[in-house]
Design a protein that fits this description.
single chain; mainly beta; Chitinase A, domain 3; Thrombin, subunit H; 2 domains; four-stranded antiparallel β-sheet; 8 strands; 38% strand
Length: 170
Amino acid sequence: MAQDEKLLVEKDVVVTLDYSLEVNGNLIDSGPIQFIQGHGNIIPGLEKQIEGMRLGDEKEVWVKSEDAYGDYDPELEVEVSRQSFPEDFEIKLGQPMRMQDGQGHIFTGVAVAISDESVTMNMNHPLAGKDLLFKTRVTDLRPATSEEISRGALAQGCSSCSSEGCSDCC
């Protein structure tokens, strides 16, 4: 990596970031993430605050909800007819479910109430309305390839969601 030691976290640089994520003092996620800086592959508040870091730099980053997953929107709690679900589909309260609408869009929702006729689904991101604390360390930097830049994402996989085999995000 000697030739890349002068790289900074800046647009069109592939960043490997080791991080831990805390919400209200509770650790909720950690690990390395790899993404192209400046292409919206990570939440805006984090991307903005790590700009200019160098290899080995560490930084605590506070991200307000509006610069992360947005404010909690009560209008994103919607009633869905029980008939919209297959008969053998098990609806579990509080558990995320991947669903598809009539136009083929895939999204995640959490059942918050169930009746004989309907299911109340919360479509907010689980971290909506929450301020986030990231503890970060830059572990690798390299120039993005022209293919990665044109795609706006890494060629080898998906960095913007956590679903295995995800094909709708990259």
